[in-house]
Amino acid sequence: MNPSPKDALQGLDAPVATIPVPRGPVPQAPLRPEPHWIEITIDGERLTVPEGSTILDATRKLGIDTPTLCFLESLTPVNACRVCVVELEGSRTLVPACSRKVEPHMSIKTDSERVRLSRRLVLEFLASSVDLSTAPAVQAYMKRYNADPERFGTTRATVAQPAKVDNDLYVRDYSKCVLCYKCVEACGVDAQNTFAIAVAGRGFPAHISTEFDVSLPESACVYCGNCIGVCPTGALMFKSEYDMRQAGTWDESRQTKTDTICPYCGVGCDLTVQQQDGQIVRVTSPLDHSVTRGNLCIKGRFGWQFVQIQPAGK
What whole-number distance in Å separates Cα of residue 79 and Cα of residue 122? Predict the structure, then answer.
């Protein structure tokens, strides 16, 4: 006589379907170690910050508006612009606030005459060599520090080069480039890992370029547009915005911004849609969004033209 299924399971390690399996312990995330706090002094005010913080983190904790140009929270600091320098007691030179980590008992001055002079000179050198007309943040810094780039001459050598318009999505106008390296970082290991652009040349001839200086369609570019999202001066710009600026119709005072979710896939990227006169003119992503951290793909950043296609007969 054949044994019943229940009898056949006797003596086996396999669980019986009719008997509930007891639940195991609920997995828990490992406890994070308590941060080690460091006491420092900024502009005469004492404060404590977690170990590993930068001077810029500490100044922001106090509400001090430290100017930055090459720094972005989602990118590795490259210390290129030196606009954020502060005076550190005991240091021979000014130090970059964006990358210098705090140490116990540091004494820092963020608005001394030495700091203001250095920041003013950096801004004057930049503005005397490139076109900063589409960089409102930099213009605000220049006003704050009374920068006068005209004293170094009125001819800007970098402005002589024409804009590169070789595709229908975005324009590269390196007459506005300050070599902050943000686009290189965003195209590299910090975000996209495409490595379509890099710094070519050394010294004064240094410039941002595709591999072998080929046109953008012939390069490794995947048109994610993350380089546009981090550019602080408008050297990289949406083709739609560039065309409107050339025509004199770009007017941010008439534009509205709406936050939404990208409809192309299930990742859930946040979009900020910018429109003027009922037409979408630019799409970005919030830097503080946990999914995108400001980054998008080609569809999310450029694939919105279908919204503006008029049905036949309309």
Answer: 13
The three-state secondary structure class of 98 is coil
Instruction: Provide the phi-psi class of 201: left if phi over 0, else alpha when psi is between -120 and 50, else beta.
Output: left
Residues of the chain with CATH 3.30.70.20: 161-305
Q: Give the N- to C-terminal CA distance of the chain in Å, as an integer.
A: 80
**Angle at which helices 113-127 and 136-144 pack, to 10 degrees?**
140
pLDDT in tens, 68-113: 999 999 899 988 899 999 999 999 999 999 999 999 999 999 999 9
Could you give the CA distance from residue 139 to residue 249 in angstroms, rounded to a whole number? Answer: 21
Can you read off the two tokens belonging to residue 29?
A: 């995330």
Local structure of 188: helix, strand or coil: coil
Q: Within 10 A of 167 (CB to CB), how many other CB atoms are there? A: 14
- Name the token pair of 106: 């540091």
Domain covering 37-152 in this structure, CATH number: 3.10.20.740
**Going by DSSP bridges, is the β-strand pair 45-50/85-88 parallel, antiparallel, or unpaired?**
unpaired
C-alpha span between 68 and 81 (Å, rounded): 8
Domain with CATH 3.10.20.740 in the chain: 37-152
Q: Which residues, in sequence order, are CB contacts of 278 under 8 Å at separation 6+? A: none
Q: CA 193, CA 191: separation in Å to the nearest integer?
A: 6
**Could you read off the pLDDT of 10-40 as tens digits, one per residue?**
555 656 667 777 777 888 888 878 888 999 9
Per CATH, the number for 161-305 is: 3.30.70.20
Q: How far is CA 115 from CA 72, 112, 177, in A?
A: 21, 5, 24
Cα 41 from chain centre: 29
On the 0-12 / 13-18 / 19+ scale of CB atoms within 10 A, 60 is middle
Q: What is the pTM of this model?
A: 0.81
- How far is the C-alpha of 249 from the C-alpha of 94, rounded, in Å? 43
